[in-house]
Amino acid sequence: MLQNRKAAAYFAPWNYKIERLSKGDTIFLYQSGVGVVAMGRASGKLEKAAYHGDPKHMDEEYFRTLERFQRVDPPVPAAKIKEVTGTNHRFLGTMFSLDADSGAALVRYIQKRGSV
Hints:
Blueprint: E1 6-10, H1 15-19, E2 26-31, E3 35-42, E4 47-49, E5 61-76, H2 78-85, H3 100-112
Antiparallel strand pairs: 1-5, 2-3, 3-5, 4-5
């Protein structure tokens, strides 16, 4: 996802989470055990591809290209995300939502520390 500047999910029901994204949604790419490693805005176009290019799994990758893509370095770990947003998020699923205020707070934190 980092190399291709996209948010992606594979196979049902996880790929449908990408389908729910709207143009302009702020997307944070989170790497387990590391934290938020990149961010961008969802494109308006849902795209589909074969899982790892395998024709046996056509259209099992759902993705949206991330506009205004930026790597976050150093990454923002889970504990800092919880502190900045004031919310005890669980980082278990393929994708989860932040409310608008939490997302904005995280963007401000990342931009303030000048890590993008």
